[in-house]
Amino acid sequence: MTATEPTLLRTPPAFRRDRLVQAWLVIKALSDAGDAIFTIAFAWTAVQIASPAVAGLVVAAGTVPRAIVLLVGGAYADRKDARRLMVLFNALRVVVLVGVAVWCLAAQPTVAVLLIASVAFGLCDAFFEPAAGTMPRQLVSTADLPAYSALSQTLSRLGTMAGSAMGGFLVAAFGLSGSAGLNTLTYVVVIVFIVLWLRPRFALPRASAEQSVLRGVADGFRYLGRERATRTLVIALSGLNLAVGPAISIGLPLQATAHGWGAGAVGVFEALVGGGAMAGALVVVRRRPRREAIGGFAALMVQGAGIVALGVGSPIVVGAGSLAIGFTAGFASALLGSTFAATAAPDYLGRLGSILRLGDDCLMPVAMALFGLIAGILPLWVPFALYGGAMALLMIMPLRNPGIRAISLRDAATS
To answer: In this structure, which topology does domain 12-151+158-199 adopt according to CATH?
Structure first.
């Protein structure tokens, strides 16, 4: 498997001086902050007007239509102009947000309104995310993809953290309509930036528009079937969150409850994960391994040990494990995300990204439920040990793959 450079349209500047890309990543982070504000307001409103079970259904309602349509969105991302798809579906998000804001100003929010909004956002995500996933390949050279991914993740985390910190205060002061209005402004800024300034530097080959969309989806799976190294990479990337997600989301609260550390301890541990992730991503911007994929997967073996450490009944060890998980997550995801973008066939990027995302979405509820089940019948350290050990063992597969071991994005840029 080799990384290939798409057709050059305009020579980009050095990444550290690339004002267009830097501005785009800041704008994306602003949108992430708006999403975090609206998500908190949406969940809070759902809890206030419905039972906990119904509120959970409302908040999660968008995941089902997104999962159903995601592969179709990936097929369109590979055959259509990504910028136009991003503008179109951001505009539809604006329509949904304005509708929610207007309704809440005229009347009380209802479960039906929240359900419609959740489903509509899920459908928009199914088309927007695959299209947005092809943009790094159109903006920066292969050699700069790790730095792009790392800076994007860092700014996105900062935006989400800032939005989450403000979200509770804003919904208390201005309600769901105010939060929806503020998020609308962030989407409008994104649309304006894409229309006026965001221009590709590299042209990606497009998938054939003659075959049906469903045939295009099937062709994406056939591509994985014949490309062993890409298949290994997609399988490994699909499983990245299945171990750490339950350990953080379910395991940390269970540990804090079992040892009487309180909810504040969970917040501290999760802050260590977030801070470590930003530090790990920034390391990639400044310094990265020669073989990016090997460095990323090796870091995730260390992450497996960090997950095991969360099962130890000491707050110091759990804190150290949280920091290690965050650092390796930020470091590895920047390296592996860029490796995936560089080595997947450019006209399959949307479909492969959708397959990758769909695997994570479909398997995560199972992974969460299984972690809770094991924790309920066995000592609490057992699920941490099992999930962390499985994580480390999973990484052996890509580390032993000759095609993945040979990847170097620096070499691809100079070949």
So the answer is: Growth Hormone; Chain: A; (1.20.1250)
